[in-house]
Design a protein that fits this description.
By secondary structure, this protein is mainly α. The chain has a domain of 64 residues. 55% of the residues lie in helices and 0% in strands.
Length: 118
């Protein structure tokens, strides 16, 4: 026959738990600066899933198209497209898989080629 264990808590432990509970406050702004930059900056309006495309040439073409048609950019189309690509690579950091990182690095070369900056 198994015996059920009874656990007893002292008043101090219960009191400590009550005082250590924090109330969560909702933030009005996004938690991460990169999320805020993506939503609020005068950057490009990118096509959804552009960085998930399988071909570096398709990624570069989509970035070029977005950069040329964007009314939000402050600099030239090439500079805006390249900075968005670099921003995505840097934001992903170490979590970006090597295959995708090489694909995006090749997309930089394709972007230069698309804008005639080789």
């Amino acid at each position: 026959m198994a015996h059920a264990r009874k656990t007893t808590h002292s008043r101090k432990t219960a009191a400590r738990r009550k005082t250590s509970v924090r109330k969560s406050t909702k933030r009005a702004t996004p938690k991460r600066w990169s999320q805020r930059v993506t939503k609020e900056s005068d950057a490009l309006d990118l096509k959804r899933g552009v960085f998930k495309l399988t071909s570096p040439r398709k990624i570069a073409a989509s970035l070029k198209r977005s950069a040329e048609h964007s009314s939000r950019r402050k600099t030239g189309a090439y500079c805006s497209a390249l900075s968005m690509l670099t921003f995505y690579i840097n934001r992903a950091g170490k979590t970006l898989p090597k295959t995708q990182r090489t694909r995006l690095e090749k997309a930089k070369v394709e972007l230069k080629r698309a804008f005639g900056r080789e």
